[in-house]
């Protein structure tokens, strides 16, 4: 009997060692460790043995053989499961070597970088950042800025109208803001002077994209309202900004111009260290009609405002030839900055 047990055990162990899949291990578990297995059969024959000692010896041998088989099955089960995972991983493997060796971190887009630097510089000069909606009323975008309906200057802004009738308004009175200047009105209506804000944001014009135009772009507006504000404060602020943003070797100048919302009005130019001038934006003393629209008394308060393109400024600073690059997702461009 002992030799039958040993033979059965060795055959089972040899077979189990060959099991190469979870299904094969399951089948062998039934076959060798189950109630109908060979060792279970031998166990049933224990009763037919003559002596108590022989029964004890054979019983102990069967239990030892069963334990060895259970342990072998368990080892095999673990190994086969690990194999199955390895095979699956191998099959689902994706080749990422393209990304190896040169781990890359993303960074803010050139427009965002310029926007954030502008905020930093102006906050350093004592300004607060204000915001307004991109979908704006005709009143905030034009009328309150001293451009009543029919005013010829409205034609300067190729306006996109929104097909929406506000509860209190008329059809055709909702626009995508054509500039950040309406934030001046919203700020004056919201808070008492003195006011010192900048308002960076997205603006919209009915323009076909080309090297110098985009239908969507970014501007930054500035507004200062206080007692006895003069053109000298405007010139000083523009110059302090120019030197803080571009560097010590840069200068600025104001050139007479016209905007409906300022009187007098000026364009401001900046001068590169090589002496050449570039036109940056518009500015002026806030028109009394604009102050009144914002609920500010022009007899008591005066102010200046300015506005310029963020994208335009960034492309000038970096020598980008085509403004459309600023709105493409071409990594060859994006990664240069
Ligand atoms: N809103 C003007 C534009 O879009 C820019 C501008 C000019 C803003 C003069 C101002 C200003 O605040 O005073 O072209």
Verbal overview:
The chain is of the alpha+beta class and 337 residues long. The chain has 2 domains: 2-92; 110-334, 2-Layer Sandwich (BirA Bifunctional Protein, domain 2). Helix content is 41%, strand content 20%. It has helices at residues 2-18, 22-33, 38-44, 52-91, 110-124, 138-141, 182-190, 231-245, 288-293, 310-318, 331-334, and strands spanning 128-129, 135-137, 174-176, 195-204, 216-226, 251-259, 262-271, 277-286, 302-309. It has a 7-stranded mixed sheet with strand order 1-4-5-9-8-7-6, with helices on both faces. The chain has a two-stranded antiparallel ribbon with strand order 2-3. β7 (262-271) and β8 (277-286) form a beta hairpin. α2 packs antiparallel against α4. The longest helix is centred in the first third of the chain and has 40 residues, at 52-91. The mean pLDDT is 92. Bound molecules: 3,4-dihydroxyphenylalanine. 3,4-dihydroxyphenylalanine binds next to β8 and β9.
Question: What is the secondary structure topology, with strand pairs?
Answer:
Blueprint: H1 2-18, H2 22-33, H3 38-44, H4 52-91, H5 110-124, E1 128-129, E2 135-137, H6 138-141, E3 174-176, H7 182-190, E4 195-204, E5 216-226, H8 231-245, E6 251-259, E7 262-271, E8 277-286, H9 288-293, E9 302-309, H10 310-318, H11 331-334
Parallel strand pairs: 1-4
Antiparallel strand pairs: 2-3, 4-5, 5-9, 6-7, 7-8, 8-9
Helix pairs in contact: 1-4, 2-4, 3-4, 5-10
The structure holds 3,4-dihydroxyphenylalanine.
């Amino acid at each position: 009997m002992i030799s039958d047990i040993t033979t059965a055990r060795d055959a089972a162990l040899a077979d189990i060692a060959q099991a190469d899949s979870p299904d094969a291990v399951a089948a062998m578990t039934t076959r060798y460790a189950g109630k109908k297995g060979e060792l279970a059969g031998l166990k049933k024959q224990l009763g037919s043995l003559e002596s108590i000692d022989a029964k004890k010896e054979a019983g102990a041998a069967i239990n030892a053989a069963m334990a060895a088989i259970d342990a072998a099955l368990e080892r095999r089960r673990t190994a086969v499961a690990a194999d199955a995972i390895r095979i699956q991983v191998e099959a689902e493997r994706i080749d990422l070597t393209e990304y190896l060796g040169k781990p890359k971190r993303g960074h803010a887009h050139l427009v965002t970088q310029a926007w954030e630097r502008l905020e930093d510089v102006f906050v350093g000069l004592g300004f607060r950042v204000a915001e307004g909606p991109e979908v704006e009323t005709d009143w905030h975008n034009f009328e309150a800025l001293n451009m009543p309906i029919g005013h010829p200057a409205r034609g300067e802004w190729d306006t996109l109208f929104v097909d929406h009738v506000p509860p209190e308004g008329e059809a055709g009175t909702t626009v995508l803001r054509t500039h950040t200047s309406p934030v001046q009105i919203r700020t004056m209506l919201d808070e008492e002077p003195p006011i010192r804000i900048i308002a960076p944001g997205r603006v919209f014009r009915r323009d076909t994209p080309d090297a110098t135009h985009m239908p969507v772009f970014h501007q930054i507006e500035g507004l200062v309202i206080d007692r006895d504000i003069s053109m000298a404060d405007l010139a000083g602020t523009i110059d302090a900004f120019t030197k803080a943003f571009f560097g010590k070797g840069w200068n600025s100048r104001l050139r007479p111009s016209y905007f409906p919302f300022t009187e007098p009005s000026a364009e401001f130019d900046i001068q590169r260290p090589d002496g050449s001038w570039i036109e940056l934006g518009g500015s002026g003393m806030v028109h009394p009609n604009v102050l009144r629209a914002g609920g500010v008394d022009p007899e008591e308060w005066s102010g200046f405002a300015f506005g310029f393109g963020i994208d335009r400024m960034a492309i000038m600073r970096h020598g980008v030839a085509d403004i459309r690059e600023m709105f493409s997702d071409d990594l060859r461009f994006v990664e240069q900055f």
